[in-house]
Amino acid sequence: MESFDIRKEDGETGGRYVTVVDGHKAEMTYSKAGTSRIIIDHTGVPKALGGRGVGVALVQRAVEDARAAGLKIIPLCPFAKVQIEKHKEWQDILA
User: For residue 31, what are the contacts with CB-CB under 8 A and spacing of at least 6?
Assistant: First the structure.
């Protein structure tokens, strides 16, 4: 899988993971649910970046960050939910 420079923008109530590839911006947004959970609510990848693994990389980064911070994820975004279901090694972070 390709490697992407993913930036995390974290705010008081939520944030996003964002990357720009070949001039196209892809992002995944989340909300904070208390101090121990985040809700992934949207993943947006432009068609120009389709099939390159950008969306999967965004979800993977969120999973890694959640593990490191001791957080659980509630994947309301259908894409994130499917990716976490596909990757059995990520399911430990499910709320």
Answer: 13, 14, 38, 39, 41
Which residues is 33 bridged to in the sheet? 37
DSSP annotation of 94 reads B
pTM, two decimals, is 0.94
Cα separation, 1 vs 78, whole angstroms: 21
CA 92 to CA 95: how far, in whole Å? Answer: 8
Tokens (6 digits) for 94: 């499910």
d(CA 54, CA 37): 23
Q: What is the pLDDT of residues 13-60, one digit of tens each?
A: 999 999 999 999 999 999 999 999 999 999 999 999 999 999 999 999
